[in-house]
Specification:
With 95 residues, the chain is an alpha+beta fold. The structure holds zinc ion.
Length: 95
């Protein structure tokens, strides 16, 4: 599964579960085993702020299956069609 790292998977329709801002982090956690014996999982969406706030708790209390962290796109302007326009803020000194 090759991910296109230049384009975000999350778009403006994904909103933070905590505050309703645009989500830049998606976390898949195991929520239990269903009747068929398969692992059920839930999705959580967070903005950058709430990802920082809640991630340690989720990691401590849940079985995290996958984390999609696209906070790097937060410093760039992302159009609704997913096209990224390069932003100056993305170039940090020393990185
Ligand atoms: Zn939030």
């Amino acid at each position: 599964m090759a991910a296109d790292l230049d384009k975000p998977s999350l778009n403006a329709s994904h909103r933070c579960d905590a505050c309703g801002s645009r989500a830049y982090v998606r976390v898949n956690i195991e929520t239990g085993i269903n009747d068929a014996g398969y692992v059920d999982n839930g999705e959580l969406f967070w903005c950058c702020h709430h990802a920082r706030e809640h991630m340690p708790v989720i990691k401590a209390r849940s079985i995290v299956l996958h984390i999609l962290d696209e906070t790097r796109f937060l410093t760039e302007h992302v159009k609704d069609d997913g096209h990224v326009i390069e932003g100056q803020a993305a170039k940090r000194p020393g990185t």
